[in-house]
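User: Here's a chain of 113 residues. Predict its fold as tokens.
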Amino acid sequence: MSSDQIHQYGAGSIGKASHTGSGDIVAGGKTVGAATPATALDDLLAAVEGLRSHLDDTRRAELDAAAADLSPGATRAELEGPLTRIAGIAALVGAVGGPVVAAVQALLASLGA
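Assistant: Prediction complete.
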């Protein structure tokens, strides 16, 4: 028998959240960590800006050209080319490009299959 006392206050309160195993606790039908495509694109562009200082002029120009091809209303198919170029450039510079690669993956995930 449990002796827990749970008091709930405010909208969205779920009471006691118990978790065993791995992964995130998800309550109320919300997806934890999922970004909208617009937010994911903003995050990617911020990560790209941070990567620019680590690139030579040629790679920086390639990165800028690929980033210019990203548009908020584009479909996944339209974005795959520029995103592939951006992720490739980021991967070439090693660990410093990791946030860009992660942001590309997050944007693709937000667009669905």
